[in-house]
Structure formats: structure tokens, C-alpha cells
Write a structure and sequence with these properties.
Strand content: under 5%
Distance between the termini: 41 Å
Radius of gyration: 20 Å
Shape: globular
Largest sheet: 2 strands, parallel
Number of helices: 15
Oligomer: single chain
Mean pLDDT: 95
Order of helices and strands: EHHHHHHHHHHHEHHHEHE
Low-confidence stretches: none
Helix content: 40-55%
Length: 323
């Protein structure tokens, strides 16, 4: 259903990612940005409140009809759980306790992971650091779709299905692109998460467990916030690899929409990224950006020139120091 996308391969480039050079240039001109590279203690309390909010929600949905369980999973729980994945993104950059307490951040990430229902935090940290160091790196950056995704999801209907199934592709893609040995922290993350899920089942019942898992699956699929998955790096304009979003949903997503700013300064917590843009406005205001993630989702599905192949890729030069 729908026209077939003409693109049959990724956009292969032979230049370095733009973020390192722009970071150096901006810091040379605005060294005060270094003062923004510090932990955000408010992140700790926000995450604790979000976990408690979902615990209350587990209690409130435990006796509802199934249709209302699923309704609230999409209308409310999906927003909390997707937001929590982006809180974990912040924690992966040590924004909660700082670089000097890296292990504290890992344990806190495992805590933040609880209402998501699926062990995710520790593995995300390992792969996300590769994404920053080797943006678009062939066989390294698992944010890049597989060749199968680009080849198969090439029509309007299939791209729509791909958007719905995004959480599954993000979960299994690393196993095909860049499998890594399981770490002891990943084992701990998994054991704690499964134990929590069992407790939710025995304390609140099956409806609360389904609510939790459905909130994650629905919230990371066809959902307004999920527009950021595509908005961040899919090439809607030739030659532009990273795009920022300046809109209201940044309030729910720890400013992940400020994505050029984030890749330029990954040590700056999300709370301070608008200040980066304000200080170095001449570097960011002229870059292509979005004001609606919903429109990004619509354009991705309907535009015959865009598909999972619309990503810039690079062959790795030399030996990669993987996370």
C-alpha cells in the first residue's frame, strides 16, 4: 500500500561527524559553556517521583476493566514510561550524580528502569556511548536501522507498521548489528527487573503488570513523543545528520529535542541545553529544526523520499574503542 520509496541504500559519507569540530569551535568562543557541564540533582527527585507515580497507577488500574487498563496505559502510562527512558538517557550521561560517581548513576538507572518492565538501563548505556563516539558508524551505531528494515519497510503502510514496532527493533537490533558480551551489571539489571515484575504481579495483579508493559510498548511506538526517534537523525534534508526539536514536548523529555546541542555537549544535562543554544545562538538558529514531532511522524510515513534507509553511515576508520 502506497508508493515504494526510491532510496535503496543508506547515505554513505566519508567525512567525520560535525559535532566534535563544532564543540571545539564553540568552546573556544564561549568557554563559559563548561560551567554548564555539571550534574543536575533535580533529576534524582524527578525520577523518584515518576517511579512513585507509576506505583500509584499500578494500584489504581488493578481492578479496572481491560479496555480501561489499555486506555490508561496509552493515555497516561505511555507518557510516563517514555519519559522515563529519556530520564535513563540522562542518567547514562552521569547527569544524576556526576562522572565521579559513575556507579551510583548505573544503580540509579536500574531503579529508574523499574516501571518500564523490561531490563534496559545498563545495556542502553553501553550502546548509547558508542552512538555518540561513532555516530553513523557501520556495525557500531545500533541507532542505525538494519539493511532488512531499510529494504522491507519501503512503502507508506510498511513504514507505518515500522513506526508502531519501533520498540521491538530498538530492542533486538543490537543483537544483529553489534552484539556484546553480557556484563555483570546487565545480569543484575535483569534479575532486579524480573523480581520487580513478579512483585507487581503478586501485589497488584495481572492488570497492573499488563498496564506497565503496555505503557512501554505503546509509548515507544505510535506515540507523539516517539517522533524524537526519527527527528533526531533521519535525513529529511540532504547533508544534515542531526536535527533539534524546539517544542513543548521537551518539558516531558528532559530536553532531548535539543539534539544538536546534546551531541555537541553530551556532558551538559538536558536542563542546561537551552542555555547552550542561547549562548551560541549563531551556531544553532540557522540549522534545520522541528517544532512538531507529530508532523515528523506523519512526514516520515507519507513522504516517498524518506525511509529507514534515510540515515547517514560511515565506515569506521581504525580500531573502535567500544563501550
Amino acid at each position: 500500500m502506497g508508493n515504494r520509496v526510491a532510496r535503496e541504500d543508506f547515505e554513505w559519507v566519508y567525512t567525520d561527524q560535525p559535532h566534535a569540530s563544532r564543540r571545539q569551535e564553540i568552546l573556544a568562543k564561549y568557554p563559559e559553556i563548561k560551567s554548564l557541564m555539571k550534574p543536575d540533582p533535580n533529576l534524582i527527585w524527578i525520577i523518584v517521583l515518576m517511579v512513585l507515580t507509576q506505583l500509584v497507577a499500578f494500584y489504581l488500574v488493578k481492578d479496572l476493566d481491560w479496555k480501561w487498563v489499555l486506555f490508561w496505559a496509552y493515555a497516561f502510562g505511555s507518557c510516563i514510561n517514555h519519559s522515563m527512558t529519556l530520564a535513563i538517557h540522562e542518567v547514562s550521561h552521569n547527569s544524576a550524580f556526576g562522572n565521579n560517581r559513575a556507579l551510583w548513576n548505573r544503580w540509579f538507572g536500574i531503579f529508574a528502569n523499574l516501571p518500564i518492565g523490561v531490563p534496559y538501563s545498563v545495556s542502553f548505556k553501553r550502546y548509547h556511548m558508542d552512538h555518540h563516539r561513532y555516530l553513523g558508524g557501520d556495525g557500531i551505531d545500533v541507532d542505525i536501522p538494519t539493511d532488512f528494515e531499510g529494504w522491507f519497510f519501503c512503502t507508506t503502510f510498511r513504514k507505518f507498521v515500522w513506526v508502531i514496532l519501533q520498540p521491538l527493533f530498538y530492542a533486538f537490533r543490537p543483537l544483529f548489528i553489534n552484539p556484546k558480551p553480557i556484563s555483570y551489571l546487565e545480569v543484575i539489571n535483569t534479575v532486579i527487573q524480573i523480581t520487580f515484575d513478579i512483585i507487581v504481579y503478586y501485589v497488584f495483579g495481572i492488570r497492573s503488570l499488563v498496564y506497565m508493559l503496555a505503557a512501554s510498548l505503546l509509548g515507544l511506538g505510535l506515540h507523539p513523543i516517539s517522533g524524537h526517534f526519527i527527528a533526531e537523525h533521519y535525513m529529511f534534508l540532504k547533508g544534515h545528520e542531526t536535527y533539534s526539536y524546539y517544542g513543548p514536548l521537551n518539558l516531558l523529555t528532559f530536553n532531548v529535542g535539543y539534539h544538536n546541542e546534546h551531541h555537541d555537549f553530551p556532558n551538559v544535562p538536558g536542563k542546561n541545553l537551552p542555555l547552550v543554544r542561547k549562548i551560541a545562538a549563531e551556531y544553532y538558529d540557522s540549522l534545520p529544526h522541528y517544532t512538531s514531532w507529530v508532523k515528523v511522524l506523519y512526514d516520515f510515513v507519507m513522504d516517498d523520499t524518506v525511509s529507514p534507509y534515510s540515515r547517514m553511515k560511515r565506515h569506521q576508520k581504525g580500531q573502535a574503542a567500544l563501550e
